[in-house]
Amino acid sequence: MKKVADMNNFRGFALFITAVIYLSNLSVVLAQKTVTQETRVVIESDVWKIVGDLLIPKSEGAIPAVILLNRAAGERSEYRSLCAHLAEMGIASLRIDLRGHGESINKGKFVPFDSTSRKLMIEPSHEDVTTAFRYLKSVAGIDSQRIGFVGGSYSGEMMAIAARKSGYGKAYVALSPGSFSDESMELIDRSGIPWLFIKSADEKAPPMKDLFTILREKSRKAQIIEVDGTEHASKILGAHPEVAGMIAVWFKHQLE
C-alpha cells in the first residue's frame, strides 16, 4: 500500500497498520464466533425486484450492519469475502444487485456505455439504495441506528445521493467512486458522517486520476487510502485481500 504525505492519507495508512495488527490476532476471535447462513432476499424498488444476500451473525442483542452496492457491470458476489470479514466481527451485511445488475434484471440488463441503459438503470438507482436501507432497518436483530454502506464506482455517488434525499447511515466506504460529485464531496464534512475512500494508484479512467486531488481540496475529514495496481472499485478486494479485512476493522470502530 502507498503512503501519501497529507494528514487524510496518514490517517488512512495508520488505519491500515491497525487493521494488520488486529487481523493477525483474529484467529482467537473467529474461534468464538458462530455465523448463520446467508438468506436470499428480494426487495421491491419501483418496478424492480432487487435481489440480495442477507447475513446476520448470531448475537444476543441488536447488531450493526452494512449495505454493499455493486459497481457498474458488476454484481454482489464480489463482496462475499468482505461480508465474511464483517460477520466475523459481529456485523451483519446486506449485499445487493442494483437494478439491471446480477440477478436484479426483471426489467432489463445494464449495458455499459449505452446512454439509454444508463438513464434507466444507473441514474435512478439511488432509489434502490434507499429501499434497501429502509428494508434493513426493519429486519429483526439489526440496530437501525448503526448501518453503514459500501459503494463501488457509480454506486458511491448513488449512496451519497440517497443519503442527501432520505437520510444518512452511520459510516460510508467508497471504492473508486469516479463519478462522485462536487456536491457529495462538499457534504462530507458538513454531515459529520465518517467516509473512507479507496482506489488503486494507476486506475486509467480520467475521473479517477483527479478524484483524490479534488477530494483533498474539498474535505478535511475524509479518510483516503490508495493501493498499488489498476483494479477498479470492488475488483480491488480481489487483488488485495487485506483491504477487505481493513474495511471490516474500520466499520467495527465506526459502528460501535
Question: Please, could you describe this protein's structure?
Answer:
Helix 1 packs across helix 10 (241-254) and helix 5 (126-137) packs across helix 6. The protein is an alpha/beta fold and 256 residues long. Strands 1-2-4-3-5-6-7-8 form an 8-stranded mixed β-sheet, with helices on both faces. It is globular, with a radius of gyration of 17 Å. The protein has a single domain (7-254), classed as Rossmann fold (3-Layer(aba) Sandwich). It is built from 10 helices and 8 strands. The protein has helices at residues 7-24, 26-30, 80-88, 115-122, 126-137, 154-166, 182-191, 206-218, 235-239, 241-254; strands at residues 39-45, 48-55, 63-69, 92-96, 142-152, 171-175, 195-200, 223-227.
Please provide a brief summary of the model.
With 256 residues, the protein is α/β, with parallel strands linked by helices. It has ten helices and eight strands.
Topology (elements, then pairings):
Layout: H1 7-24, H2 26-30, E1 39-45, E2 48-55, E3 63-69, H3 80-88, E4 92-96, H4 115-122, H5 126-137, E5 142-152, H6 154-166, E6 171-175, H7 182-191, E7 195-200, H8 206-218, E8 223-227, H9 235-239, H10 241-254
Parallel strand pairs: 3-4, 3-5, 5-6, 6-7, 7-8
Antiparallel strand pairs: 1-2, 2-4
Helix pairs in contact: 1-10, 3-10, 5-6
Bin the helical content: 40-55%
CATH class: Alpha Beta
Mean pLDDT: 88
How many domains, in number, for the residues?
1
Low-confidence stretches: 1-13, 20-34
SSE class: alpha/beta
**Rg, nearest Å:** 17 Å
Name the shape in a single word.
globular
**What percent of residues are in strands?**
15-25%
What kind of sheet is the major sheet?
8 strands, mixed
